[in-house]
Amino acid sequence: MELQTLTYIVVGASFALYIGIAIWAKASSTGEFYVAGKGVHPVLNGMATGADWMSAASFISMAGLIAFLGYGGSVYLMGWTGGYVLLALLLAPYLRKFGKFTVPEFIGDRYYSQTARLVAVICLIFISFTYVAGQMRGVGIVFSRFLEVDILTGLIIGMGVVFIYAVLGGMKGITYTQVAQYCVLIFAYTVPAVFIAIEVTGVALPQIALGSTVSGSEVYLLDKLDQVVTDLGFTAYTQGTKSTIDMFAITVALMVGTAGLPHVIVRFFTVPKVRDARISAGWALLFIALLYTTAPAVGALARLNLIDTVNGADGQGTAYEQMPSWFSTWENSGLLAWYDHNGDGKVQYAAGSAMVGKPKFDGEKRGEYGERVVTNPSKGEVVKGAPYANELSVDRDIMVLANPEIAGLPNWVIALIAAGGIAAALSTAAGLLLVISAGVSHDIVKGMLAPDISEKQELMIGRISAAVAILIAGYLGANPPAFVAQVVAFAFGLAASSLFPTILMGIFNKRMNKEGAIAGMLTGLLFTMGYILYFKGIFITPMAENIPANWLFGISPEGIGFVGMILNFVVAYVVSKLTAPPPEHIQHIVEDIRIPKGAGEAVAH
Known about the structure:
This protein is mainly α. The protein folds into two domains: 3-301 and 409-477, Sodium/glucose cotransporter (Up-down Bundle); 312-400, no CATH class. The chain has 23 helices and six strands. The protein has helices spanning 3-24, 30-35, 42-53, 56-69, 74-98, 103-110, 114-146, 151-201, 206-209, 221-231, 244-259, 262-265, 274-292, 295-311, 325-332, 399-406, 411-449, 455-478, 484-497, 499-508, 514-536, 561-578, 584-593; strands at 318-319, 336-338, 346-347, 375-376, 381-382, 392-394. It has a two-stranded antiparallel sheet. Strands 2-6 form a two-stranded antiparallel sheet. Strands 4-5 form a two-stranded antiparallel ribbon. The longest helix is centred in the first third of the chain and has 51 residues, at 151-201.
């Protein structure tokens, strides 16, 4: 069957499944809309948490970053997995025992302040919209390639599907939809990885294939990849390109940012008991590990296959007319660009920028990208007529999606990975949009502006908020500031610098008061956001070029949340010491939520 037809069938069937589940699990109360009625089984909640957690960044972009960064991409693996352990051990059980609907509600009650609650909502909205921009970009990338529509049309389709099951089903509908989405995405991710691992190494398990020898030789996969990329002028695949301080900062920012992500935390509010929150965290770690331990092999195999395909067996390049069909198809999607710089009719991939400035990725106008750049990697300089000329510019976000095509796998595998990529993006987008909706309807409207509104009115406001959030998310998806994983890394930095310290101190420091919490959150958020905007956003200037020499302490925007977190802790501690302690009953609440007894039914207020 033709690939596009097969893709429409597979993706369409998955959409029908998601919408059917949302209709079946329609939320009829605010409890079901916000926390699925607190009746989700721990195993199912673990699976839903895995889908909520493994976003487009995990499915689409992480292995792409690893493919191009090699060892440097390991920060995403270490940070995201380590952070989930922090969340499971330090936050989830205690927050579930506290028994609230949302993270801002916990902060508002713990710090006996509506102002603290409002600041938490503001932090949550900034974090969630930054994060959701990456998810919607992922949706657009998948649609633009596999359904052969432009990115904007793809975004509109994705927004429509999310609208139906997020607005209609609420957390109840999202939870059971995410269970289905986890099954789709993990199957779609591992099946191509297994096929390609067998093809390259003869070993079926990708995790083992990464450390195995290449079929027909005694050379290990990573050794061969190191040799291939260094021959082309790149840094060795297993050699780090980031400074130690930046590696450390990014890893910590991703770890603590994970533990502060509101859409992940709220998943632990959906189970019946505190004990179930711990159990579901363990299951979620298992489900997440299936993808995260596969990603390094996917990245390495994708990079090797790309080089072999583009440069050919002799390393001199492949004639454009002889390139597989996937090459021109991805060109037309606007995510891959090639220009025949030396006029030999062959595509050649090597170190160095393929063009001056940012590539336009306009597949219908190949060559209209400005002056081409030829790099001599042995001297580290740009030279006209040098022997190493890079003629290919590849968007990193296509590597996982294009991997089955590059490896020549059957069409049904390619269609499957399209459905998996969409499932990963939509599952996380839905969770993010719901916490934004809850922040507006439950924390701002019900909690502060109109506490006397009925449950029906609150539910309607929640659905309207979700609809508006989807529209904003669509715009951000069409105009993202960076690669999917980088956008998501910014969201983690914001969470690390704002919510995580406040939640952690709220659980383990009974002396922390509202003044300290508010000052800490605002300091961490404003510092981290300002730094990211200065280097990546609307305030970027020639003086703020995104190069290490200009970074504070050599820390990149992806890792600056680590510094923001420290500032939050320090400011909160100092301010709390200079102001009055919390009321006695608040200090007793802090002590109570850490006591193991009562690990049964938590009471919601």
